[in-house]
Amino acid sequence: MRTEIEHSLYDGMKHEQGREAPPAGFPELPLIPGGRYTDPAFLELEQRYLWKRSWLYALHVDELPRPGSYRLWRKTGAPIIIVRDKENRIRAYYNTCRHRGAPLVEKEQGETKGFFCRYHGWTYDLSGRLTAVREKRDFPGMDTSCFGLNEVRCEQFGNFVFINEDPQAAPLLASLGPIPKHLENLGFDSIRHIASSSFEIACNVKILLDAFLETYHLKSIHPQTVDRFLDSRGTHIVLWPHGNSMMCTPHRRAEWRDPGAVGMPEVPTAEQIFLSQNPSYNFYPNLVTPPAATGTPFITFWPRTARSMTVDVHWFAPEGAEGHELWPTRMSNFERILEEDTQFAPRIQESVETGGFRGIYLSYQERRIYHWHEELDRRIGSERVPPELRVRPMLDAWLATD
Ligand code: FES
Ligand SMILES: [Fe+2]
Asked: What is the pTM of this model?
């Protein structure tokens, strides 16, 4: 992160703490229609134009330790194999034989020298080439080079691997906008994976994700935890094009440190802000991370059905700090906070399904949620969204570039 950016975040937090109202001209935001959380036709558009066409965090390189290590990944519905090839490149393929579509791997994870289809015995190597066809004599004119596995876009930001099912998508790093620049000194090229866990919540995925884009709730639902050390009135927000955004919340006392991380090794190049304040990023659409000099969690939010979702929590440590004795405490403290965040989600789901709910009314400090929804309509194409479910663009004038 450039020094000017770090300074602008500090200035921004200070300004927020002292202001009496939103900046002049900031509009009252129209209601976000509740049907965007429940309407089957809308959720279908979202599935098709958002989840099938976005860069989504899939795994960390440590989860594929050797050439031939693979994992089966199904977060968008399609079965995708993510594998480390012989040249140590991480690639992704649909788990779909080019003959008649049988699966190539059947376990959730493992190690293999190549892919062998158990239906009729076609064989592929780790780079996806079709290398053997049983009874090839019966396929007149067949050019095996045209029947390699169908590849899925798979790119890395440091040690983090992302997948995108849209072959036309802009490269991952371009789609992240200024985020990689903000995080460039956090050692993501050498960061290690420590643990991952998952839990399910009975609500539409967006209901819970919304809670991670604002700090307005800190005083009410985190009085004994986060609110004791973060000053939510000082939260400074930055909105970027393509839906990405961040917020930076000041510690109540600059010298306060997460007790679960005191004494943990720090990334030596990390800026002070990643130690003494609380920045949190949204990689659009579904990755939220509050990176810290002592280690970083990724929280990812996934749709399951219209009214159920999965949260995955991944933890990453600076190289050399993987085995630190404080990790279990730090992770369980974080889990307690997450439980606080999830407590209302199933009942909010009930609410949005009733006629008693008119829409979501957002404040200036909750504008990241509005920004998120504006981008969703851009991705779907506003003209495809039923008029009563559209979100009117309001925030174009409030975007930043770095
Ligand atoms: S479906 Fe794979 S070999 Fe026939
Ligand atoms: Fe929270």
From this structure: 0.97
- Domain holding 79, by residue range, is 56-157
> Does residue 284 share a domain with residue 203?
yes
Whichever domain contains 307, its CATH number is 3.90.380.10
**Distance from the CA of 121 to the center of ligand 1, in angstroms?**
6
Q: Which atom of ligand 1 is nearest to the CA of 120?
A: 3
Which residue puts its alpha carbon closest to atom 3 of ligand 1?
120
Last residue of a domain, one of 101, 123, 157: 157
Asked if the structure places residue 216 within a domain, the reply is: yes
Q: How far is the CA of 116 from the centre of ligand 1 (A)?
A: 9
Residues 103 and 182 in one domain: no
Q: Is residue 22 part of a domain?
A: yes
Same domain, 326 and 213: yes
Cβ–ligand 1 contact at 124 (below 6 Å): no
Q: Is 102 in the pocket of ligand 1 (CB under 6 A)?
A: yes
- What six digits make up the tokens of 389? 């479910």
Ligand 1 binding pocket includes 116 (Cβ within 6 Å): no
Query: Do 31 and 74 lie in a common domain?
Result: no
Structural domain includes residue 170: no
**Same structural domain for residues 182 and 135?**
no
Predicted confidence (pLDDT) per residue in 102-149, tens digit: 999 999 999 999 999 999 999 999 999 999 999 999 999 999 999 999
Domains in the chain: how many in total? 2
Question: pLDDT digits over 233-274, tens only?
Answer: 999 999 999 999 999 999 999 888 888 888 899 999 999 999
Q: Is 119 in the pocket of ligand 1 (CB under 6 A)?
A: yes
- Looking at the domain assignment, is residue 271 inside a domain? yes
